[in-house]
Write a structure and sequence with these properties.
CATH class of the largest domain: Alpha Beta
CATH topology of the largest domain: TIM Barrel
Distance between the termini: 46 Å
Helix content: 10-25%
Number of domains: 3
Structural class: alpha+beta
Strand order of the largest sheet: 4-5-6-7-8-9-10-11
Largest sheet: 8 strands, parallel, barrel
Number of helices: 11
Number of strands: 31
Strand content: 25-35%
């Protein structure tokens, strides 16, 4: 840590302590792990927590969402922090702008009288891209994650030490509201290196984090044996029966056990029906937890949105399963922050356990939402009119090896020898459009296991083959997380390995989009950007309907709303009011397939 960084950290800590004093928080509380219960100021304390993720919610709405959780009966807010959200580029950290301002998030919870649980990773899962691990690490071809690999641990220790500077003033031991910090996440589902888990705990302690720690694992013997640590509270994902709690107490005695993830909803992948878990079963589970005074955390009480390129993916029995842009999760508080019938049922149930004459706070007024009229979009330009300088590669390599983490990449080569036949992209990650001599041939799709296509014989002497690859969400769970993007192995034509490629990177980041060069007539070759504008007299949240487009991304006033895809089930993208303005609003859409103009509309609901 540099001298300047130490000085700024000390100044920041003093400012936080002064703010605690100004807010009347000079009375210190204590929080400890009893033999079976959590102890707040020496007395048994039942944590009733609602999980939400600051990185998935515009900072302008943090207060509203926290108030919503409080009105449902929660006394605590649990928050995953995403390492790659705070260290997007190696060694460059952001804990202070927009929805990365963790200090502001915790302070907002404190203002509402809520306690806070921090779940900082370095790995979190959370259906977030690569489980929160920064993809720049994947540039090392020898990388091993979630273990004592020196490259990984050096980066994780640097992240933890920087985040610890932000958290220390907010710990309950410093007069703040942070009760506990999680060590890793569901490690027993992944590996068995207890040295790694212990090393993370030591790094946190050496960084001045002196509150209790906990782990979180599924309620099975092997997961708890591999994932728990002596002296750390045991979180269960989920703890839904007395049998689960008894098992955890046997596996790690002498510490409290709680349900660190009680699931009121579930995730949804592209191409599936919306997940809609049974509310009756949830209410029975919560009643069991309330009756037995067990602590628990709703995962999630409010999901928010996977803006930009942040949505993750799974890789289970169905193969590659990318997650939606919406992280509504069928949670009690929906994506736009409104109370659902599930919310009302949980509020009634939890409220029934209050002391006589005590009442839950009133439910906050909903955030306004609006529609806007149909807006026509016209072609602006294309990827073909905005080609960056190429990089020559003897064989194709993944995005990361070219220093690019997200977006798209064009791989182009001339066909020598075979001029047509069966084209195979070995280990395509994840979706591609294929062109021969400028003509669209078809698509490849990892999700469907489609990695080959028949191409006609090219008409030119050395036909130009172009493969435009979209990197979708990186896998965030289990054993396939080393998920580099692009063409990760090689390309063959009738079994012949194709050599000598020109590779063009399209990161589709803010700088790239703002630098797009308009074209007179982009033509009929897919890969077109469309532009439109709509005027607003006032701003409110809205959902932009994308049913007239096929697959791509949407930017509103420069903000990336995320991915849309005609396969659904999501057809509308959430656009929060803070990203809109009175007067003219610009919308840019990049579509992989559509070549003709189309229209969008705004709706007040999903």
């Amino acid at each position: 840590m540099t001298g300047n960084h130490k000085l700024s950290s000390i100044v920041f800590t003093l400012l936080i302590l002064i703010s605690h004093a100004a807010a009347g928080q000079t009375d210190r509380h204590t929080f400890a792990l009893g033999g079976k219960e959590f102890l707040l100021d020496g007395k048994p304390f039942q944590i009733i927590s609602g999980e939400m993720h600051p990185g998935r919610i515009p900072a302008e709405y943090w207060k509203h969402r926290i108030q919503m959780a409080k009105a449902m009966g929660c006394n605590t807010i649990s928050a995953y922090l995403f390492w790659n959200h705070h260290e997007a580029s190696e060694g460059i950290y952001d804990f202070h702008t927009g929805n990365r301002d963790i200090s502001r998030f915790i302070a907002t919870a404190a203002e509402e009288g809520m306690w806070v649980i921090i779940r900082p990773g370095p790995y979190v899962c959370a259906e977030w891209e690569l489980g929160g691990i920064p993809p720049y690490l994947l540039r090392n071809p020898e990388l091993k994650i979630r273990c004592m690999d020196s490259h990984y641990m050096k980066a994780a220790e640097r992240y933890i030490s920087r985040l610890a500077d932000v958290l220390r003033p907010h710990l309950i031991t410093s007069g703040g509201r942070v009760l506990m910090v999680q060590i890793e996440n569901e490690y027993g589902s992944y590996g068995n290196d207890r040295n790694y888990m212990e090393a993370l705990k030591v790094i946190w302690e050496n960084s001045g984090i002196d509150v209790p720690f906990f782990t979180g694992d599924g309620p099975t013997t092997y997961m708890l044996e591999a994932g728990t640590l002596p002296g750390c509270a045991v979180g269960l994902d989920s703890g839904s029966s007395e049998k689960d709690f008894e098992l955890a107490r046997r596996m790690n005695p002498g510490v409290p056990v709680f349900s660190s993830e009680t699931y009121p909803g579930w995730l949804t992948h592209w191409g599936e029906d919306w997940a809609r878990p049974d509310t009756g079963a949830l209410l029975r589970e919560v009643k069991f937890l309330m009756d037995s005074r067990k602590s628990f955390n709703f995962y999630v009480i409010h999901g928010g949105t996977n803006f930009g390129f942040t949505a993750g993916a799974n890789s289970g029995g169905k193969g590659y399963e990318p997650d939606l842009t919406s992280y509504d999760y069928d949670a009690p508080i929906n994506e736009q922050g409104r109370a659902t019938p599930k919310y009302m049922a949980l509020r009634k149930l939890i409220g029934s356990y209050l002391p006589k004459r005590a009442k839950l706070p009133p439910i906050p007024d909903p955030v306004p939402a609006m529609s806007f009229p149909e807006t026509e979009l016209v072609p602006l330009t294309s990827i073909w009119d905005n080609m960056p300088a190429p990089i020559h590669s003897v064989q194709p390599r993944p995005f990361e090896m070219y220093g690019q983490d997200y977006g798209f990449m064009l791989y182009a080569t001339r066909l020598i020898g075979h001029k047509g036949g069966k084209l195979t992209v070995i280990d395509l990650h994840d979706y591609a459009t294929v062109f021969l001599d400028g003509k669209y041939i078809g698509t490849l799709d990892r999700r469907l296991g489609i990695n080959s296509i028949d191409i006609p014989r090219g008409e030119s002497r050395y036909p130009l083959l172009e493969i435009f690859v979209e990197g979708m969400g990186r896998i965030n769970f289990a054993h396939s997380m080393i998920d580099r993007k692009g063409i990760t192995d090689r390309v063959t034509l009738n079994g012949m390995t194709l050599m000598n490629w020109e590779v063009y990177g399209y990161p589709m980041d803010e700088d790239f989009i703002s630098a797009l060069q308009p074209a007179g007539a982009p033509g009929e070759k897919p890969g077109i950007f469309f532009r439109g504008s709509f005027d607003l007299e006032t701003t409110a949240d809205t959902f932009i309907d994308m049913t007239n487009f096929v697959k791509g991304f949407v930017w509103v006033n420069g903000h990336n709303l995320g991915r849309y895809w005609e396969i659904g089930p999501q057809t509308r993208l959430y656009c929060p009011a803070p990203w809109l303005k009175t007067g003219e609003n610009e919308i840019i859409i990049f579509d992989l397939h559509k070549t003709t103009p189309g229209s969008i509309r705004g709706f007040p609901t999903m």
